[in-house]
Amino acid sequence: MASSSYSNPPCAACKFLRRKCLPSCSFAPYFPPEEPTKFANVHKIFGASNVSKLLNEIPPHQREDAVNSLAYEAEARLKDPVYGCVGAISVLQRQVLHLQKELDATNADLMLYANNDAAHSYQVTSNSTLYNGEESNPGLILPYASPWNNSSSNDSKSM
Ligand SMILES: [Zn+2]
């Protein structure tokens, strides 16, 4: 009988808590012995008894997702004790905002060049000297000033 218990290593939770891992262990399916830090993190943040209660309250098919969520939140909380995973979310939201601004600016750029091309080909037929002289300052032929261009160029405080 000793050989059968030896072939069944305790789950990460039972090993951490130094208790016998019974076949009915509620942690065993979600905390394999190969991932000892997963349970250690979850235990440190939420407490083993809370996790056990939570697992018993939710339907079995949702338990794995719940444990993975707890593990993710625990890891984030250990990494960032103040904000936890909210810190990661806000960093990603800021990144999305920044990329959206970049995309808007690039789209505005594209519009500008598309307009310049249209204006250029139009003016070539009507008055070619007007555009050719202003090659270095294509903004002149636009009927409006683009706001993103003004902010990125030299600031207005220099007179
Ligand atoms: Zn166990």
Notes on the structure:
This protein is mostly helical and about 160 residues long. The chain folds into two domains: about 1-80, no CATH class; about 85-150, no CATH class. About 65% of the residues lie in helices and about 0% in strands. The chain has eight helices and no strands. The chain has helices at about 1-5, 10-15, 35-45, 50-55, 60-80, 85-125, 130, 145-150. Helix 3 crosses helix 5 (about 60-80). It is elongated, with a radius of gyration of 31 Å. The structure holds zinc ion. Zinc ion (ZN) binds next to helix 2. This is LOB domain-containing protein. It comes from Olea europaea subsp. europaea. InterPro entries: LOB. Belongs to the LOB domain-containing protein family.
Strand and helix layout:
Layout: H1 2-7, H2 12-17, H3 36-46, H4 48-57, H5 60-79, H6 85-126, H7 128-132, H8 147-152
Helix pairs in contact: 3-4, 3-5
Bound molecules: zinc ion.
The site of zinc ion has 8 residues, from helix 2.
Family: Belongs to the LOB domain-containing protein family.
Domain LOB: 9-110
Protein name: LOB domain-containing protein
> Got a strand count?
0
SSE string, helices as H and strands as E: HHHHHHHH
Instruction: Pick out the low-confidence regions.
Output: 1-6, 124-140, 144-159
Distance between the termini: 90 Å
The backbone outline, from C-alpha atoms, is: elongated
Instruction: List the ligand species.
Output: zinc ion
Largest sheet: none
Tally of discrete structural domains: 2
Which percent bin holds the helix content? 55-70%
Mean pLDDT: 79
Structural class comes to mainly alpha
Percent of residues in beta strands: under 5%
Q: Figure out the total of helices.
A: 8
Cα-atom radius of gyration: 31 Å
